[in-house]
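Following up on my earlier thread - several people asked me to post the actual chain instead of describing it. Fair enough. Here it is, all 76 residues.
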Amino acid sequence: MTDERADLMLEILKGIQSDVAAIKREQVSQGIRLLALEDHIRGLVGTIYGIQSDIADLKMRVDRIEKRLGLTGTEH
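Reply from S.P.:
Thanks for posting it. Predicted structure:
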């Protein structure tokens, strides 16, 4: 192989190496963003469970009030 050809191949390989390094950096960045998104979703799910619990508590209170007032035949 001639020196010229070897130099050309070396330049091509350096370009590939640079591209792979850029892809690795982008993957790390996307991984961090994904972790942040997962944390956010966990927070939203926790909030939703809290809201569902509050609604269930309110429903029980309304049911007790209706029972005390003799309105047990009403639907909600």
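The CA atoms of residues 66 and 72 lie 6 Å apart. That should answer part of your original question.
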